Amino acid sequence: MHDKDNILGNLVRAIGLIEDSEIFCKYIPEVRTNIAYALPNATSCKEVAAIEGRITVVNNKPKACGYPKFGASSHLARAIIEMIKENPGKRAAINIKGDKEFAKYLKSKIKLVEIDRSKEPKEVSKKENLSTQWKVREALKKEKKLDAIYSFGAVGKEDIIVLFGEDAYSLVKKILLLIEEAENDFQ
After folding, report:
1. What is the residue-wise DSSP string for 56-107?
2. Phi, psi at residue 181, to the nearest 5°?
3. What pLDDT is stored for residue 129 in this prediction?
4. Residues β-bridged to residue 148
5. Mean pLDDT by 10 residues, the chain (187 residues)
6. pTM for the whole structure
7. What is the distance between the alpha carbons of residues 111 and 145, in angstroms, rounded to a whole number?
8. How many domains does the structure of the chain reveal?
């Protein structure tokens, strides 16, 4: 049931939701947004599908730069692989802009864990591709059933929120609803 075709189709549907949401542009970080969805028990980035080229802004609307493809993500893939060691059902992830006010709002609605990257050990920050797993492990120490991680405080690194879910489509529906509610509350 969770074969590659179903995962790719689920991602295509998730992209459609994002591309139909103009307000989502406000939540796309400088590093751009990606959505990833893993095969059950994935252990390598090649077992995780994501959007080639990520999601950017074109004419004030979110736009996927490419199609979903297995092996298209490194950061989100590694985050999911680390997450499913503890929570096998959370096989999807999306990254959005790390905004303190929105993170505070999310914390009131879902299980969001804050990770201060200034506390990241030097042996982790100096070596390529270790930070993502460290952030997830640190967050899981604080909350085993977490929904999101807000990482902040690293010099030269953008603050980011990564949300996790069972599949890409339902995760995007959830984040778009939370964004809509937050935007109404912020006004």
Report:
1. EEETTEEEESS-EEET--SHHHHHHHHHHHH-TT--EEEEEE--HHHHHHHH
2. -65, -45
3. 77
4. 112, 163
5. 87 98 97 97 97 97 98 97 97 97 96 93 80 95 97 88 99 98 87
6. 0.95
7. 7
8. 1
**CATH number of the domain to which 113 belongs:** 3.40.225.10
Both tokens of residue 143?
């909350």
Provide the token pair at 73.
């993500």
Residue pair 50/73 in contact by the 8 Å Cβ criterion: yes
Strands 160-165 and 148-152: antiparallel
Note down the domain range covering 104. Answer: 4-186
CA-to-CA distance for 10 and 27, rounded, in angstroms? 21
Reference 29, options 49, 57, 5; nearest CA is 57
The two structure tokens encoding residue 63: 């736009």
Token pair, residue 175, equals 């984040």
